[in-house]
Every structure is written in structure tokens, then in C-alpha cells.
């Protein structure tokens, strides 16, 4: 992933897509000397009648229009395109001028591939001579291939060969990390997903299998989630919820009081525990740290018996043999032992 700063400068210069399927990522020139931020400020004035989803210059990306909405960039093609403008660029640029901003070309390629994966359209680079197809292209494609408008940017000297190489570097061309994880995880069973599906953030991927799922994100790698854990993951909003992406494979935990091993799996936002023949529960934060200090499921509190529950100015969580209360600056673990319960001392 290239290094860049992504800013939100969202305005009102957009329209609904009206159910249209996104098919193309389109590149544009500014024909001026603006920065990514100054161009975005201009686009945010609806009276100017123009906008793009992204502006880009000097490794600064400004998001002006969410991809779920149509920008005002390519007339009647707005409904099915995502549009990016290179701030400070011109159609008359030479190949050398474009290669001088190669870092921005690479960022644009990354954004195009991210968008294509997010919305399910092709990452094929459609360069002159054009043909009508899903993929990544420029404003002149809209003019020449689709017959809409008269614009000719990004111009005749744009280095399509270099740009296509950047696009290819962000596109899976061999076995993916999800495929590799599935191959090393036979308990997943038969694959149910045709290929991989994009997550809403446009960065992650997942695939469904007979006995679970595999999720991948560039910062966490690929990890399999068994169905027994997946139920809680889904309940909490999948990867867009507080759990985030899985960061490790699940672990089997012996339970001498149960009928079989329990399961635990770590996520970005905590750990899901599931005792055999019981529902799964999420443990995290200060309560998770206190439970760990008590010995996890083999300690005096036993297995989690609920998620966190809001109480007065804080929260508490039920466990097999007690509960843990948290309020700001204080946490108390109690073991069920009659009336009153017994506070648990912290281990030395």
C-alpha cells in the first residue's frame, strides 16, 4: 500500500446513483494549479457544477464525494463511475511531466483497485484505443468509447504502461492469502463463495466455507473463523463492528466441567470465548484484563456468561462463578459465594 494522507472534505456537490451498478474508475486532469485541498474546496460549492470523488496531489488524497453517491464529473456517466482528479495536472503534460508524479500515479492505481474490489467491477486498465468495458480508464474513454461529452483528459502522453503496472501490483494475480489459509485449514470444508467478496471498507476480503469463513485485511493477514465463533462475530456487526478483523486463528480450550473443548479467537477489538454447548461471549478492555489476571476460564470466575452489560455509570460482565464491575478508575471482581459475594484480591 502506498503512503498517503487521506482527508475528508465532503460537500453537497453530488447526486444519488439511483441503483446504477458502478462499472468504471475514471481519471481526470484539473487544467489548473490547485492543491488537492484547494480543488476540493472549489468542488464543494454546488454552484460550480462540478465534483469528483477524490482529488490527489503530492500524496494527499481528499475525499469529496462518497463512492455510494454520484459525483458531477462525466455528465450522464456519473451514475456508474467513480472519479479522481489529479490536482495541478494538465492534458498538455508530457510523459516526463506525468512520470515526475509517479508516486501519485501509484496512489491513484491503489485507489482504483480498492474501489473496483469494493464494488465488484473489473480492474482491467482500459487505455487508448478504447473499447467499452468495465475497468479503470480516463475521461477521454467516456468521450470516445461511450460518446458522452467532448473532454480528452488525461491527454495523449499519459503513461498508461506505468500506470497499468501499478494497478497490477495491487491486483491478486496468483493464489490469494485467503486461498492459502483455506488450503492449510482442512476443517473449513467445501468453499461456498465464488471467489472473494470485498468488505465495506474496501480493503478487506472474505470467503465463506462449509464450516466457517476466512477474513483477510492487509494489516492482519488471513484468518479462519469457525461457525461457532462466527455467530457472535455476526451479532456484533462483523468486521465493521467493535470486534474488527480476526488477528489470530482460534484456539481450543479444554473444559473439564463441560462435554467438549471450548473455543477462543482474538480480534482487533477483543476476544470471543465459547464454552461447549453455551453461547459465545465477547471479552475485552479493562474487564478482560481483570479476568485474565484471575486466570481466564480456569480461574475462580470461570467462563464468560454474558457480554458486558451497562450498569449505572459503568458496565459489568457475568462469569460462570461471579462477575466483574467496571466504573471509571475502578474495577472490582466478585465471586458468587452467598450474600454478600466475595471480592477477589488481585494476584501479586
Strand content: 25-35%
CATH H-level name of the largest domain... which superfamily? Peptidoglycan recognition protein-like
Look at the helices and sheets and give the structural class.
alpha+beta
Q: What's the overall geometry?
A: elongated
Instruction: Give the tally of β-strands.
Output: 19
Order of helices and strands: EEHEEEHHEHHHEEEEHEEEEHEEEEE
The side-by-side strand order for the widest beta sheet comes to 1-4-3-5-2-6
Low-confidence stretches: none
CATH architecture designation of the largest domain: 3-Layer(aba) Sandwich
End-to-end separation in angstroms reads 45 Å
Count of DSSP H/I helices? 8
In total, the number of domains comes to 3
Largest sheet: 6 strands, mixed
The whole-angstrom Rg is 26 Å
Q: Percentage of helical residues?
A: 10-25%
CATH class of the largest domain: Alpha Beta
Mean of the pLDDT scores? 92
CATH topology of the largest domain: Lysozyme-like
Organism: Nocardia mangyaensis
GO molecular function, one term: N-acetylmuramoyl-L-alanine amidase activity
Protein name: N-acetylmuramoyl-L-alanine amidase domain-containing protein
Domain N-acetylmuramoyl-L-alanine amidase: 10-155
Q: What's a concise summary of this model?
A:
Pfam families: LGFP. With 348 residues, the chain is of the alpha+beta class. It is built from 8 helices and 19 strands.
Features:
348 residues; alpha+beta; Lysozyme-like; 3 domains; six-stranded mixed beta sheet; five-stranded antiparallel beta sheet; 19 strands
